[in-house]
Amino acid sequence: MTNVQRQQGETRDPWLRPESRAGRQTGNRPARVFPSIIVSATEDQLVVRAEMPGIDLEQLDVSISGDVLTIRGLRQTGQDMEDGWYHRRERESGGFSRAVHLPAEVDGDKTEASYQAGVLTVRVPLRREARPRQVPIKVAEGWRGGEGNDVGR
Amino acid sequence: MSADKEMEVAEKSQVDTSIHQELRSGNWFVPPTDVYETAEKVILVMDMPGVCFDCAHVSIVDDDLVVTGHVTHGEDEDDYVLYREYDVGHYHRHFGLPPTIDRTRIEASMADGVLTVVMPKVEEAQPRRIAVRVAG
């Protein structure tokens, strides 16, 4: 950060000044589908996490068909407001529908979803065939980095 | 359920830790905030997914409202990440408090990763009717 930027950088963020920010963007703001997800794996399940704060669970639909997980819902951010006016509006709202193609074969019948602190966590058990398995490594006799072409027996 | 508008998601904005050096190491993000004002109060609504209510801290330091949220529900460190679209980290933001706010009556509450701070205005700052008398 240059000296000029440091002087102009806000250390605080008075909301009455609409453009000041206390941080910097990590990059451009691409249009992307909501919600953002993290897909991870444990030994026997896939875990899909999505950050979706302030969601009405009655408006949230999580379904799975084959290995496609669909998350559908509605986020409203202004409904509780009385007569007044916005100084700043940074929180997105609207409908969303996202289909996630899971990267392994899963058993959809046993899918579990939970919502805590604004994070949706969906756990889907892996099919037995899809679970990680140790692969025994056979050492091939005669293969010593270029000496001869005999591989294994 | 129909929707008028499909939601987009914005990249998280990182806190400039060269300015906020009081923050310890780790990822720190600026929580998206709506600021709404009525005749009687100013309301802040901040998204801090992954933060439980007892990990959210709101304090007044000099003329600033300082909000910090520590993430406890973000991800499991034991899990093997296959695909990541967002980073998990804590939240931090300062706001300048105008003198119209009654600092003794600020209240904060949190649910589902959303922190709401209600800041009533001091009596004098609220709209009042002034009676007009007949002159003379």
Major beta sheet, strand line-up of chain A: 2-3-9-8
Gyration radius of chain B (Cα, Å) is: 20 Å
Low-confidence parts of chain B lasting 5 or more residues at pLDDT below 50? Answer: none
Distance from N terminus to C terminus of chain A (CA atoms, Å) equals 62 Å
Q: Please estimate the helix content of chain B.
A: under 10%
Please report the total strand number of chain B as a whole number. 10
* Low-pLDDT ranges of chain A: 1-31
Largest sheet of chain B: 5 strands, mixed
The biggest beta sheet of chain A, please? 4 strands, antiparallel
Q: Mean pLDDT of chain A, rounded to whole units? A: 76
Short description:
Chain A has 153 residues and is mainly β. Chain A has one helix at 3-8, and strands at residues 23-25, 37-41, 45-51, 61-65, 68-75, 85-89, 94-101, 112-116, 119-125. Chain B has strands at 13-15, 28-30, 33-37, 41-47, 56-61, 64-69, 80-84, 90-96, 107-111, 114-120.
Explain what the structure shows.
The complex is a heterodimer of chains A (153) and B (136). Chain A contains one helix and nine strands; from the N terminus they run αβββββββββ. The radius of gyration of chain A is 25 Å and the shape is elongated. In chain A, β8 (112-116) and β9 (119-125) form a beta hairpin. Helix content of chain A is 4%, strand content 35%. The longest helix of chain A is centred in the first third of the chain and has 6 residues, at 3-8. Residues 1-31 of chain A have low confidence and may be disordered. Chain A has 153 residues and is mainly beta. Chain B is mainly β. Helices cover 0% and strands 40% of the residues of chain B. Chain B has no helices and ten strands. Chain B has strands at 13-15, 28-30, 33-37, 41-47, 56-61, 64-69, 80-84, 90-96, 107-111, 114-120. A five-stranded mixed sheet of chain B has the order 1-2-8-6-5, with no helix packed on it. In chain B, strands 3-4-10-9 form a four-stranded antiparallel sheet, with no helix packed on it. In chain B, β9 (107-111) and β10 (114-120) form a beta hairpin. Chain B starts with 12 loop residues before the first strand and ends in a 16-residue tail after the last strand.
